[in-house]
């Protein structure tokens, strides 16, 4: 299907940034529009409570290690005495139990200390990739819950075009379909792109489907938020787009397939297919079938390879593959 649609530029990966622990926002080091590098500090929570927890955990670990040293020394002495029959078996078992408890206590205190170290590090929000800050949702002095968004963030690198396609036209778009992207802000540029993803359901308010196109070779001129004109190219797919009822789709493990009726002997074979879009009552296939193929519409989990069937027309014309 060929067609032109308006769109806008987005990063391939866009996500909110948030602290993994709660606390009061003490400092903010960047603002929207800032380009940041991986590992760069972006904001800081008040670290006072985390530092106290870390100090307590460190002290608990030191005490546990001291108890383990004492229990280990006692274990070595009692082991020698038990071998010489100088202490009873009950006393030796108590010593072994004390040593095991001290060892477990040290390991537990070590885990708590490492957890406290992590909690202390989490009071600094750090960029995990190179990218750009796209928005700000928190102010200095604000008390934040763990996971509450502080910044919007877009990775550097891959760029995509988002297009809202009317439901009357989305059926003719398939993943992998080629497109050409032009931008009013860059009249001398044209970018090759292809359809990467088609939303499985329409937006509840606009009743349009979000289609995402990956730009094949983006450059620094392609800025986030720019408006774009997308021209989808026709005739890219080796197999025409086919619509089938949802009841006809069979899953071979994690891979979708359909039961195809061999026109020569009316026996069934399992044909892998590529799904372009899932609907409430139908499925759009981008590859695997062509118009005119005969498939099993219902009862796909009750038949098997090589089974001979009799073709019966669907009771409703709209259920036929299109």
Main sheet: which strands, in order across? 1-10-13-12-11-14
Return Rg in Å.
32 Å
Strand content: 35-45%
Largest sheet: 6 strands, antiparallel, barrel
The overall pLDDT average reads 88
**Total strand segments:** 20
Count of the separate structural domains? 3
According to CATH, what is the class of the largest domain? Mainly Beta
Known CATH architecture of the largest domain: Beta Barrel
Can you write the helix and strand succession as a string? EEEEEHHEEEEEEEEEEEEEEE
Main location: other
Pfam families: Beta-barrel_RND_2 (PF25954), BSH_RND (PF25917), RND-MFP_C (PF25967)
Organism: Dyella flagellata
Domain Multidrug resistance protein MdtA-like C-terminal permuted SH3: 241-300
Give a written overview of the molecule.
The chain has helices spanning 48-83, 89-121; strands at residues 3-11, 14-18, 23-28, 35-36, 41-45, 124-126, 131-136, 143-144, 149-155, 159-166, 178-183, 186-198, 208-215, 227-232, 242-245, 250-252, 255-261, 268-272, 274-278, 282-287. The chain has a 6-stranded antiparallel beta barrel with strand order 1-10-13-12-11-14. The protein has a 4-stranded antiparallel sheet with strand order 2-9-7-4, with no helix packed on it. A 4-stranded antiparallel sheet has the order 6-5-3-8, with no helix packed on it. Helix 1 runs antiparallel to helix 2. Helix content is 21%, strand content 36%. The protein contains 2 helices and 20 strands. Strand 11 (178-183) and strand 12 (186-198) form a beta hairpin. The protein folds into 3 domains: 1-44 and 124-236, RNA polymerase II/Efflux pump adaptor protein, barrel-sandwich hybrid domain (OB fold (Dihydrolipoamide Acetyltransferase, E2P)), CATH 2.40.50.100; 48-121, Orthogonal Bundle (Helix Hairpins), CATH 1.10.287; 242-319, Beta Barrel (conserved putative lor/sdh protein from methanococcus maripaludis s2 fold). It has 322 residues and is an alpha+beta fold. Keywords: Coiled coil, Transport. This is RND transporter MFP subunit. Residues 20-150 form the Multidrug resistance protein MdtA-like barrel-sandwich hybrid domain. Residues 162-234 form the CusB-like beta-barrel domain. Residues 54-81 form a coiled coil.
């Amino acid at each position: 299907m060929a067609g032109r649609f308006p769109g806008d530029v987005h990063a391939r990966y866009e996500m909110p940034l948030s602290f993994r622990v709660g606390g009061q926002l003490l400092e903010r080091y960047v603002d929207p529009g800032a380009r940041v590098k991986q590992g760069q500090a972006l904001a800081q929570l008040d670290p006072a409570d985390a530092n106290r927890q870390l100090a307590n955990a460190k002290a608990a670990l030191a005490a546990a290690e001291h108890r383990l040293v004492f229990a280990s020394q006692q274990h070595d002495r009692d082991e020698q005495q038990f071998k010489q029959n100088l202490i009873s078996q009950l006393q030796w078992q108590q010593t072994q139990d004390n040593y095991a408890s001290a060892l477990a206590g040290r390991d537990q205190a070590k885990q708590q200390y490492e957890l406290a170290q992590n909690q202390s590090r989490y009071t600094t929000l750090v960029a995990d990739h190179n990218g750009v800050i796209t928005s700000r949702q928190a102010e200095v002095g604000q008390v934040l819950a763990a996971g509450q968004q502080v910044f919007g963030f877009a990775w550097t690198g891959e760029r995509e075009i988002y297009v809202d396609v009317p439901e009357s036209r989305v059926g003719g778009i398939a993943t992998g379909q080629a497109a050409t992207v032009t931008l009013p802000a860059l009249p001398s540029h044209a970018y090759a792109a292809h359809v990467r993803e088609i939303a499985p359901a329409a937006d509840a308010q606009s009743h349009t489907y979000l289609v995402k196109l990956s730009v094949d070779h983006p450059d620094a001129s392609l800025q986030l938020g720019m408006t774009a004109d997308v021209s989808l190219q026709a005739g890219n797919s080796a197999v025409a787009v086919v619509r089938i009822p949802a009841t006809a789709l069979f899953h071979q493990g994690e891979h979708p397939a359909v039961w195809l009726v061999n026109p020569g002997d009316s026996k069934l074979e399992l044909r892998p297919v590529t799904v372009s879009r899932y609907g409430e009552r139908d499925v759009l296939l981008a590859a695997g079938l062509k118009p005119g193929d005969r498939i099993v519409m219902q009862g796909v989990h009750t038949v098997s390879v090589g089974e001979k069937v009799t073709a019966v027309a669907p009771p409703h014309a709209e259920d036929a593959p299109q």
